[in-house]
Amino acid sequence: MLLHFSVSYDPPPPPTRLLGKATIALRNVVHASPGTPLDYELGLLDAADSPTVGTLKLVVSYTPPAGAKTGGGGGMGAMAARTAGATSTLADGISPMPDGGGEGMPGMPQQRNRDRLSNVKTSFQVRVRVVEGRQLLGSNMCPVSRVTLNGQTRQTRVHKGTNAPWFDEIFFFQAEILPSELFEKFLEFKCEVGMAYDQAEHAILNRWLVLADPAEATSTVQGYLKVSVVVLGPGDMCPDMSAQHNTQDDVEANLLWSAGVYLQPATFVLSVYCAQNLPQMDAGTMQTLKEVLGVGTPCKELVDPYLVASYAGREVQTKILYTNENPEFRQNLHIGFLFPSMCNVIKIVIKDWDRVGEDDVIGTATIPISAISAPGVDGYLPTFGPSWVNVYGTRRERELLEGDASKKMNKGEDEGCAYRGRVLLALHTNVGTYPPAPTTAIDNNDFNKVRRFRGTRKFVVLCHLSAVWLLESAEKPVEVEVSLGNFGNKLENKMLPSPSSTHPANPVFDGCK
């Protein structure tokens, strides 16, 4: 059985707002010696069962009724339970759950990094890097960020006309103070300095802060701010605090928010109808030999595709359709997340299933959330399609040994240089609940409604090429090819021939180096 606790704020005008909740297992209390007080320090969870920075300290004891048998808990279990309160969760570190498990079971005490320092005046340097802000509420904004510590305030540059500023500024705070005093002081966003010191390398690196207005009773999310905080004592080395434009940090495990701030559960429903024009991914050596000898069955499509959609660190994939270059997936992918989210990109990756080794990436596409939604009272939730989304990567010609450059283009790490197919997608958003299942089937009636998007018409594209400059020296003649999708690609053998390339010509040296 579990004992549940909730901490709420009851302002004069209702309704009551939940600040946090926690649970402990009663078996730990019953098995202790009768009347023994057990100290707990529990990390509080919000309404969505996500960790907050708040903690709840309490003392629990159990007195059995007269004549009842006790659990005989005078041994090691009771001693561990009594001392469990020496370590907190989010106040002493940023672990998502208490040390004893998800039910609030007490664990053995751990020594914090700050406890190893002698309590004498010591020189400390606190470095705070303000990286970027996202999803800031408002229009015609000129955002600026201020950091305050120990009476010292630093301010970033003012960015005009944006709700997604890129600051990338670092501030230094010097202090010669008792460690016990410094670690109890608050940074203005607010957290104990000791919380950063207790982390690995004494640093909080590239974490997203959930911004809220303390004057509002509902604690509506006002945006996100990405920061890094490092606390350096004598002899400490500073870790890498460099900031980059990448999506690896845009995961919900990187969020930090205070008690009382509520993020709503939400779901992206991504309808994946079908894909077309996927390239061959398997070598097919034996199939080619059979064609030469004139034996065997007709050539199959040497690709086993499936689609992976990811957002804010969550990932869902479709079923695998074997030997099919034009697959019909007919599936809805449900991606749960916390709304509003700091992540601004839905990543679409089409992969080829491989019986041996790692699955190959066919191509990658991204859907920016800011392009399919609008903030404010007159705005709308992310909505998209049905529409075709092209995926790009390396050249379509099959390489037996794929190089690093080709892999990076297929994964979307570098800009793709060739068309690798397209997929028909639609997206809508539901706010208020998490998805009951990761995937569901698309109804036949809904699938038939999008057949009109799969129709094609014939067009003629005229392109005039006059000259090409700044070419590197070439040992062989050079030709220029103009293609639109697979049309115009003379190496594509799955369509009617439509070559559109210039005649081979040797580059002419113009006398310039």
From TrEMBL:
Region annotation (Disordered) ranges: 494-513
Q: Which SMART domains match?
A: C2, FerI
Q: Which Pfam families does the record associate with it?
A: C2 (PF00168), FerI (PF08151)
Q: Which GO terms describe its cellular component?
A: membrane
Which Gene Ontology BP terms does the record give? Answer: membrane fusion; plasma membrane organization
Localisation per UniProt entry:
Membrane
Q: Which residues form the signal peptide?
A: none
Keyword Ribosomal protein in record: no
Annotated C2 domain residues: 105-228, 247-384
Q: Is ATP-binding included in the keywords of this UniProt record?
A: no
What keywords were assigned to this record?
Answer: Membrane, Repeat, Transmembrane, Transmembrane helix
Membrane-crossing segments per the record = none
**CDD domains in UniProt:** C2C_Ferlin
State the protein's name: Myoferlin
Gene source species: Chionoecetes opilio
Q: What is the lineage of its organism?
A: Eukaryota, Metazoa, Ecdysozoa, Arthropoda, Crustacea
